[in-house]
Amino acid sequence: MSDQSPHLAVWPPPGSPVSIATWRRELVGLFAAMISPPPFPVGAARGTGQPVVVLPGFCSPNLTTARLREFLGRQGFNANSWGCGTNFGPTARDLAKFERHVSGLAERENRPVCLVGVSLGGTMAREFAKRRLDCVARVITLCSPIKYPVATPLAPLAQAAILLWDERYRRKLRLNEPPPVPLTAIVSTRDGILDWSVTVPEAAPNVEIIHVESPHLTTAFDPRIQRIIADRLAGA
After folding, report:
1. Which terminus of the chain has a lower count of CB atoms within 10 Å, N or C?
2. Domain presence at residue 13
3. If you average pLDDT over every residue of the chain, what do you get?
4. Whole-angstrom Cα distance, residue 169 to residue 192?
5. What is the DSSP string of 53-96?
6. Which pLDDT score is estimated for 156?
7. Would residue 53 count as lying in a domain?
């Protein structure tokens, strides 16, 4: 991919599955889910204390993953936030803080950590696993872009945020290469934020692709997706 920031995110071209209208629908759905979240799935897989770190999506605070972390905690997983507040992308400060957070958790638990990332959070989780294989057991991504340019109505905001990203990190991105750990990529054809085709990874022995129909912003609230995540984490 090009490391020129203007090419990472672009305004949706004619015929794109995403637009201002789909973005608005996503926001309405997110507010509804936060006010009245759907019930947790019944009979989901249980964990045995596996440490899990959940990364929020682009420009999203930890509050957006609180419901998923609550569910994972109820199921017996050691669920943690990513420790960096609102996710504006791989800034130098947040990359260093996140690495300390994950490596410290892995050391305290004496076992590698599972990473669950929503949207850009999943993209960052994939890249972190490539750099710190010693700390990561498994990666699960939810609607995470791995091909560029990304067509999105958030392109102007993304282009501004990209200017804050760590330049060395951007130059080293090899997003098409899967991390050397088991990867589950959850892809939604109903994605209203990103053209969903950029979230589909290449086939590989350690890559599992699961297609769902869920809005982008509410994947972490979806009981069907919560069940999938618990099942994969239980096997880590």
Report:
1. N
2. yes
3. 94
4. 27
5. EEE--TT--GGGGHHHHHHHHHTT-EEEE-SSSS--S--HHHHH
6. 94
7. yes
Backbone angles phi, psi at 55, to 5 degrees: -100, 130
Residue written as token pair 């951007």:
170
Question: From the CB of residue 3, how many other CB atoms can be counted at a distance below 10 Å?
Answer: 13
Using alpha carbons, list the distances in angstroms from residue 35 to 104, 118, 213, 232: 34, 20, 21, 28
DSSP state of 134: G
Q: How confident is the model at residue 52 (pLDDT cuts 50, 70, 90)?
A: very high
Contact 121, 139 (CB under 8 A): no
Is 38 a domain residue? no
What is the pLDDT, as a whole number, of residue 170? 72
* Domain contains 37: no
- Picking from 137, 120, 126, the residue whose alpha carbon sits closest to that of residue 51 is 137
Q: What is the CATH number of the domain that holds 196?
A: 3.40.50.1820
